[in-house]
What we know:
By secondary structure, the chain is of the alpha/beta class.
Amino acid sequence: MTSFDAIVIGAGHNGLAAATRLAKGGRRVLVLEAANEPGGATRGRELAPGFRSAGLAHLVNRLDVEVARDIGLDLKGDETLLPTTVLDGSGTAITLHGAYGEQLDGVSAEEAAAFAALRRKLIFQAGILKRFLRRPPPQIGAISLGDLSALAGAGVGLLRKGRSEGRDFLRMLLTNVADVTDEYLADDRLKGLLAFDATLGIHLGPRSPTSLLGLYYRLTGDVAGRTGGQFVPAGGMASLAPAFRRAAEKAGVTIRCGTPVGRILADRGRASGVVTGDGTEITAPVVVSAIHPQTTFLHLVDPAESGTGFVRSVRNVRSHGNVAKLDLALDRVPDFTGLAANARAGRIVLVRSKEQVETAFNPAKYGEFSTDPVMEITLPSLADPSLAPAGGCTLSALVQYAPYRLKAGWETGKPAFLRIVLETLERHAPGIGKSIVASSLMTPVDIEAEYNLPGGHWHHGELQADQLLVNRPTGAASGYRTPIDGLYLASAGAHPGGGISGLPGWNAARHILSGASS
């Protein structure tokens, strides 16, 4: 078949969510994926014989429950939320249990109470922003009744809390996470964790203005209705892509892998289909791009169709990653000093303080990597034993800060950075170096090449105030629609942003099915 009602470019989880929603709405949908299997950045790869990486993502903390229910995602494992353990190298640990620290181990009663108060405030304030996640962002100059309802609901939510809470929200909204943690907390390890979580994957430090937005964004996610929760699906992260694929195929979606798109057909401002890499023309009145907006408009669309001003705005989207992804194949499960055995399956964060995070960020501003990196670690093979042979283990780490544009170049910088990262791990898990069978460090440049992500940024663009809501990815394409009729955006580069939520794809599909003007 060379004619469909809709063509979706990209079989990442957002592309499959969009395709499934469109198919359930009665459309004949084709998904085209350049790679040989679906999954996008959740695709794994072999590290060494018998060892596999689970892909870029190693935890789920914002999969939208309504998206999962609507598309029929048969994913298990969110009943048990995983803990987060903070290790600072002292041999003592803080462990956050439940949904983002509903209970704490390793701090005084006074500090636990202070964290609980801050947690309540942050979750309330993030909840104000959460009201806008399941809908297109308000369009400047074209506010709809739905937009007014969402805005009114946010306002009422603030009023119910009283004037002081309203003032506090407006005060904190654009502040930095370092100042907020200083207001509430005394323990450097807790401050460091919040600073890390607020800036992970974002080119900001804890003292950068607006850095608190990153923590708000994290806390707009929930698991099984519990804000800030995190889990790994039954069968591990490798089970995510097959689950989205099953949902799509059950809805009647046609998926073709190993089929890159060479060009989006558009004439006089109207999309009409695509041409694949081998020259095959496939027509459809609706084309949904679930890949990076810069790839879409700088490589697949004739610039004359979207206009030079729009193309310039897309080119100026900041999308340079600053996180490296480390995968290790180990011959045994590592022992981290201070880590309880029952917390091994959770998230491990190596951070001493917010000052360490800030100091780690400083070199990145000038194109250098941190010599004292902070990182988030999981042991994926504990959830999915197929990733390692019997007795072995895999380790996955997200390492801050590793700028895309390294001044010295990653060809020479990568071995030096890997050495620093492994030395850091050795301090926290003595003997881990001797158990390494194979290692793979993916810099943002490697991530760009492996997953076709411009700049190696997994959010498809910075999650900062000027690139969110009405400006994501740019003002002229913020509501999933684009200047080309019939062409829509549905990747993490669209509202509300990155993470495994399914919301950009699902929202885009609902917008198309609503018949809203493109």
